[in-house]
Structure formats: structure tokens, C-alpha cells
Amino acid sequence: MNSFEELDRVIDRILAGSETPAAASLELVELAALASELRHLPRTDFKARLRMELEWQISGRSVTASPEWKKDVVQAHAADAAALFGKTAGLYPVRPVNLVASLALHTALLLFMGVGLVIVKSTQRVTPLTASGVTRLDPYISPASLRESRGGGSGGPADKIHASQGPAPRFAREQLAPPVVLPEVRPILQVESTIVGPPDLNLPQISQVGDPLSRLLVPSAGTGVHGGIGENEGGGDGIGHGPGRGPGSGGGCCNGIYSVGDGVSSPRVIYKPEPDYSDEARKIRLQGVVVVSAVVAPDGRPTRLRIARSLGMGLDEKALEAVNRWRFEPARKAGQPVAVQISIEVDFHIFY
Amino acid sequence: MSVVCNLVDERQLIEAAQQDPGRFAELYEKNFHRVYAFVARRVRNREEAEDVTAEVFHEALRNLGRFQWRGAPFAAWLLRIAANTLADRWQRAAKNGCAARTIEDADRAVFVEAGIERHAILSQLVDRLPPDQRLVIVRRFVDEKSVREISAELGRSEGAIKQLQFRALENLRSQVRSDEHE
User: Which of A3, A58, A66 sits opposite B166 (nearest CB)?
Assistant: First the structure.
């Protein structure tokens, strides 16, 4: 048996816990004594691990130093879910601060993924009112004249139902007879019914007059009084007061609203909060443009907001809410602020 | 002269560690093998030796501010902590009905044993062996694997493993001798 074999046999017996066996030579005796001491070597990673624990202790962090410490930690965290939050293999203790920070971070991350990934951005553009490509859903307002013109009218024979649909009567400078929807008595001297306004304003005419904005087909002159068509009084046609047409009062048309151009400047947005996205639209990722028709009053506030092009799914309402909070530097004519009719495009887009 | 210089250096190092605990790592590196050797000779297994060693250094770090230099090596203070820790453990074990052990008064007053120094040196010398010899020593004596298992792991013949084992021990013996002569 050579020296290698004999030494290995001796080492086997040492590791088995036997007394150091007798060896053939002095050299082997010395080597066996060394081998016996080597049984007490620490594990290779123990020194580095303990140093790391000490550095943690120096930096003020808790470490798994002793069984007592481990017991304290277990007791301190007994209320915690031991399986989830317990120490891992006794090497890396769970630190409550880290645990809380980790939970907060993950919660924020989940919220970001759930909501924040859908970044909603909307852009708005103010354009002068144009009819092309816009489906007008708002109440009919006759085109504004370059000159300020006030007017509006309504009336009716106090019928039980609102005015029925039909074109407004012809404009005339004087009103000889207010419009009627169903003349009950055929008069001896027939006079054409008119409403007061510039005679050169031409509206489409058919035989049966009525409120152009009404949806009722059953003939009715409306719930107003003192003749005319509509819900108020005055012998006109529409929602105003007086013998004219449309909103406003007195004769004429359109309550003094201008169009941009020909000496009328465009209003300029000075405050425009962003519209929100509706939940329904976000769910189906609906995108597009909502066109809002508005009259910018001389004080810069948008009034008479109407949806001119709809997207639905709650975006119309969101657009109206936003535009209603906008503020403008009003349009001007000859240096004086005037009300103008404009269209506002509210752009809804989802960026991923 | 060199012993005096070492003590002066150690005293400065201790004072520095008392001011800045980050310097304790240097004291740890200098004394780890001594403490481990002292403990390992007195406990039953490696796990217990590691537990006690860790406890000794954590205790030392906690109480470093109270350490007062009296001319004895820092290792003596650490070994005293180790002896007390072992005594406490054995007392608790005795109360719990486990086989009682006693620690000799001489152990409580221990300073530096020649055997401990030799073992500490041996541990450090293992780290300096050539990589293949060191691996065989670690597998054989720390992991307690047989030559057959090591040969299968390293893909070498059992004879080659036994030869590496022999050469490693010879290396260690010659280096221990030269260290002792120094």
C-alpha cells in the first residue's frame, strides 16, 4: 500500500470519529495529526457570511446573529404571516421597513399598470364655425349677420303640446298677422303670416309653418300665448320673446351673434382645462373628435354649448364639461367685445 | 519588538473601531480563525461552532465601546466572550435536561493557546493552497465526502484525488512548520 492509500485510510477513520490510528511512518503520523485538525475547518462561506452580518449590524440593520436573536425576531413578528414573511434560511432576515416599502412599491406599480399605462391626452382646437363636415345637432340658429342684429320670438295659442315641426314664416318688416299652425277660422281677408325681421333673410318655405327645431309632427302652435309659434309670448317663432325668430327678444334674428371674419376677430382661449376620459370610452378605447358649438359671450365665457359632432360613450358630456370651464379673450369688432359663434374640436386620444 | 509593535497597532485599531464601528471588520479578519478554532474544539459539530462564533463577534461588536485596553491582546477578550458564551449555553442545556458540560476555569481565563494559534494558522493556510488541492481538502474535511464522491464530482480518478489530498497535507505541514519557526 503506498503512502496515498495509507493516508486516505487513516483519514477515513479520523472522519468516522475513531481515534487517530497508528501510521506506518512518522510522516504519516504528522499528516494524520493535520488531518485531524482539519475536521474543525469552518465552512467556506461562513466567514464571509458572518462578516456581512456584522456589517449589517454596524449599519443599524437587524441580523440573524444568535438563537436568542432569532427567537426575539420570531416573537416580534408572531402576528405576521410566518410562512410569507418569515426569515429565509436564517441568512437574510425580513426587515419590516423593507417589507412595507416593497408592498407600497408593488401597489403603486399595480396601480400604474392598471390606470397609468393608459395616458389620456386631449387636444383642443378652436376654429371658426364652418358647416362643412359637421352634423349640426344643436338648436337651429340662423347665420349671424355681419351687423349686430337682435331678435327672437315666440308665442302660441296656449296649446297643450309644444309647437310642431315646420319652417319659420317669412320675415317681414311689419307683422300683420302672427303665424298660426292650424287656422280654425278661415278669415275673409287673408293676410300672410310673417315674423318680424329683415325681409332679405330667406328661410326654406313649405305650406305648413312651425318651429324648425321641433320634433313633433302633430300640428300645434305651441304652449305660448299672444299668437305665434313657440313656448313664450309675442307672436314670433322660436324660443325667445317677441315677434322675431329664434332666441332673444324683439324682432329680428339670432340675438346679436357674429361670425368670425369680416372685421370680427376670433376669440382666443386663455384658460382651457383638459377634459377627462369617460370610463366607458376608455374601456373600449374609443378615440376621436367631439365638435362643440358654442357662443363666446363678450365677457369671454362660452355659452349655448351644443354638441355638433358626437362620439358618444360619455365623451360628449366630458367635452361639454371641459369647454364650459374654458375662458376666452372675446372676439372684437371695431375694438368692442362681441359674441361670436364658434366650433370647438375636442380631440380624445389614448396613447399607450 | 514586533510583538510590541503589533500590540500598539492593535490598540490603535481598537480605538479606531470604537470611534468608527466600520473598522471592526479589520479586527474581525484578524481574529476570526482564532475564535472559531477555540469554539470548534469545544462543541460537538460545525453548526454549533458557527453559531457560537457568530454570537461571540456580535456580542463583541455590541460591547466594543466598553472595551478597555489593559495590554492584553484583543483576541483574549474575544476568547473570554467565547468561553462565557459556551458556559451559558451549557448551563441552559443542563437546565433543559441535556447532558451537562462544564467549562474549566482555565478556559474562562484563557488568553492565547498555542493550539488555537496553530489551528488559526492552518485555516488560513488552507485558503492559500493551489485551487485543486484546496478543493479536495474542503470536500474531504468540510463537506466530509469520500474520495469516490470527490472523484465523481471532479471527473478525476480516485488515485488522483488521493494524490492531491496527500500533496495538500504535505504542503500544509511544511507551511505550518515554516510559520512556527518564524
Answer: A3
